[in-house]
Amino acid sequence: MKSITGHPLIIVTEEDVEKSRSLCGVEQPERIKESLDSIDEWCKKQDHLVEAYNNLDRNMLERLFLLARGSVEATKTRLDKILTSRGMMPELVLNRTLEEFDELLQGLLYTPLPRLYSVDQSRIMVTQFFPGKLDNFNLLSYLRYCFMIGEYRLYYDYCLSERYIVDLANVNLSLLSKINPVILKKGEILCSEGLGTKIKGIHIINAPPYVDKFLFILKQALREKVASRIHVHSSYEDLRQHLPKEILPMDYGGDEQYVEKLASQWREELTTKKARQIIKDMDKLVSDETKRTSSKFNEEYMGMPGSFRKLTVD
After folding, report:
1. Relative to the CA of 20, which of 70, 133, 182, 187 has its CA 20 to 30 Å away?
2. How many Å apart are CA 232 and CA 288, to the nearest integer?
3. Is 112 within 8 Å of 153 (Cβ atoms)?
């Protein structure tokens, strides 16, 4: 079935749209329009949000409405969180340029897969490392790149959740020293609490003998619910028991293009004038806290107090 996004790397069919809306209980286009109009009216009355909101694409607003499961009030809260949390964690999402990732991308591949997983309408992201290139890996730079693609996708995508495939085929123990659990925790908070992304699964393949040490660090930084969704697969066949062959790349016995090809296409796509403008405009999606009328929004709103202090690394 033909994609309706007009984007070469994000395939969303009419059937996908219908299913995503159905899962959120908002099948009627009229209801969606009325809900978005109501949210729009509310946002324009919030002094601390209005300037940022004026830079928010209507398509992106509809995506946030879906992530809030079709609830007007939950979408208002989500908008407040996303616009405020981006300002609280600028090191993860602000002032990004494509050129800053040149060194990072000499050591790894990162790409969304084109087709949605129809069971829960999730989008799958794949990370692969190049052999002997771990010196190029920087966790903060990696998260900035992931968030840049993730936020860019909000302009086109219609997924309800995300899954991640992490291929550890070419890593060694030095990777552990590069994973700062505090930075990883911030990334998870921004992803889940800020953007409202629902993480349905983290699928680890080609796990090395010391994978338990890797998992220990991950679980220290992730919420218990997310950590419980980590799967270590013993083979590609086992991976295909969880995710369908039709949407997986050929690297893992699937039907989709190889990860290297997809990642290259994404890098090329992000260099287009339109993509660069979208990325630049994202810097405007930050609340103005000097104009907030309520003092209720503080670190507790993001679930952050004490989160970092409790982290320990063995």
Report:
1. 187
2. 42
3. yes
The answer to whether 10 and 157 are in contact (CB under 8 A) is yes
Residue-wise over 281-312: b if at least 16 C-beta within 10 A, else e?
A: ebeebbbbeeebeeeebeeeebebeebeeeee
User: pLDDT tens digits for 184-226?
Assistant: 999 999 998 888 899 999 999 999 999 999 999 999 889 999 9
pLDDT (tens digit, 9 = 90+) per residue, 229-279? 999 999 999 999 999 999 999 999 999 999 999 999 999 999 999 999 999
Buried/exposed 157-189: b ≥16 CB within 10 Å, e otherwise: bbbbbbbbbbbbebbeeebeeebbbebbbbbbb
Residue carrying structure tokens 């050591």:
107
Q: How many CA atoms lie within 13 A of 69 on its CB side?
A: 4
Tokens of 92: 């993860």
Full-model pTM: 0.92
